[in-house]
Automatic annotation (TrEMBL):
InterPro entries for the chain: Cyt_c3_hydrogenase_gsu, Dihydroorotate_DH_ele_sf, Dihydroorotate_DH_Fe-S-bd, FAD-bd_FR_type, FNR_nucleotide-bd, PyrK_electron_transfer, Riboflavin_synthase-like_b-brl
UniProt: [2Fe-2S] cluster binding residues: C232, C237, C240, C258
Family statement: Belongs to the PyrK family.
Domain of life: Bacteria
Keyword Transport annotated: yes
Occurrences of domain FAD-binding FR-type (ranges): 14-112
Keywords: 2Fe-2S, Electron transport, FAD, Flavoprotein, Iron, Iron-sulfur, Metal-binding, Transport
GO molecular function: 2 iron, 2 sulfur cluster binding; flavin adenine dinucleotide binding; metal ion binding; oxidoreductase activity
Pfam families: DHODB_Fe-S_bind
Annotated binding of FAD, by residue: R65, P66, L67, S68, G87, T88
Cofactors demanded by this protein: FAD; [2Fe-2S] cluster
Protein name as it appears in the record: Oxidoreductase FAD/NAD(P)-binding domain protein
GO biological process, one term: pyrimidine nucleotide biosynthetic process
Amino acid sequence: MTHMTEATTKADDIFDLSLTVQETTQLNATTAVLAFKSELIAPLIKPGQFVNIKVNDTLAPLLRRPLSVHRVEGDIFEVMVKVVGSGTKLLYNALPGSTVQVLGPLGNSFDYARQDYDTAILVSGGVGVAPMTILDDCLRQAGKEIFNYVGGRTASDIIARKLTNLRIATDDGSQGFKGTVVALLEQDFPEFAKKRVRIFSCGPNRMLQALADFSMKKNIPCEVSLESVMGCGIGICYGCPVHVKNEQGEPDGHKLLCQHGPVMDAKQVVFE
Ligand SMILES: Cc1cc2nc3c(=O)[nH]c(=O)nc-3n(C[C@H](O)[C@H](O)[C@H](O)COP(=O)(O)OP(=O)(O)OC[C@H]3O[C@@H](n4cnc5c(N)ncnc54)[C@H](O)[C@@H]3O)c2cc1C
Ligand code: FES
C-alpha cells in the first residue's frame, strides 16, 4: 500500500492533498463508501461540507467530482459514492491503497448547533443520505432529538447507514411507507406540531422542492443541501450558479453553490 505524504497546498483551511484510499465498502451494486485518512482535513469538516476529488491522474474525466462528507472519526473521513457516470464509477471501483487528489473541506455546513429548536428532522432521498450520518453524529452530541426520514424508489435504494430513529418510505411500498418521504413526513406531522422543529435535507431536487413547499406551509425552518454540476469547487469558475429569491419571493439573482452552499435556506432557493 502506498502512503503519500499529506501536505501539498493550503488556502484558508482548505487543503489539496494526495490521499490514499484506506478502505472501500461496496454497499450494493452502485454505491460504495470510501475512507481516507487526513489529520489536516478530517478535524476541520463540518456536517454538510464536501470534498472535490480528482478521481485519477489522466485527462478523462478532467474535472474533479464533488462528494459530501459522509462520516468523520478521528482523522478518518468517509465519502459515499453512487455510480452515475465515469467519475463515480472509477471511485466505486477504487482499490484500497490507490491515491486520489482531494480538495477540502469545501462549502458551508448545516446550521445544526443553534439553540432555537430541540427536534431535528433529517429528510433524505437516494444518495442524499450521505451527509446525514455526520449530521446525525453532531446532532446527537448537541443533545437534539433526531428523526431520520429516508426515501427511495424501492427497498434496494434505501441505504441508511448509522442513522438514528429511522422512518422509511419507498415509492413502490417495498419497504416502510408507500409513497414519497415528504408524504410520510406530512402524515406524521401532528406528532411534531408542539415541538420546536428544524428540518435538514439532502436529495433529488424534486424531493427538496416538495419539502420546501411543505416546510413553508407549516412555517418550519428548513435547510436544503443542493447538488449541481461543479468545476473548481472554490468560487473561481462560475460553474455552479443557483437562482435565488428574496423574502418577498421575487427573483434575486444567483449564488454560487460551492461558496454559498451546498446548504441553503429552503425559502431562498428557486428550484429548476
Ligand atoms: C455539493 C455536492 C455534493 C455531492 N455529494 C455526493 C455524494 O455524497 N455522493 C454522490 O454519489 N454524489 C454526490 N454528488 C453528485 C456527484 O458529484 C455527481 O454524481 C458526480 O459528479 C457525477 O460524476 P460522473 O463522472 O460519475 O458523472 P458524469 O459522467 O459527469 O455525469 C453522468 C450523469 O450525471 C449527471 N450529473 C453529473 N453531476 C451531477 C450532479 N452534481 N448532480 C446531479 N447530476 C449530475 C450528468 O448530467 C449526467 O447525466 C454531489 C454533488 C454536489 C454538487
Ligand atoms: S464550482 Fe467553480 S465557482 Fe462553483
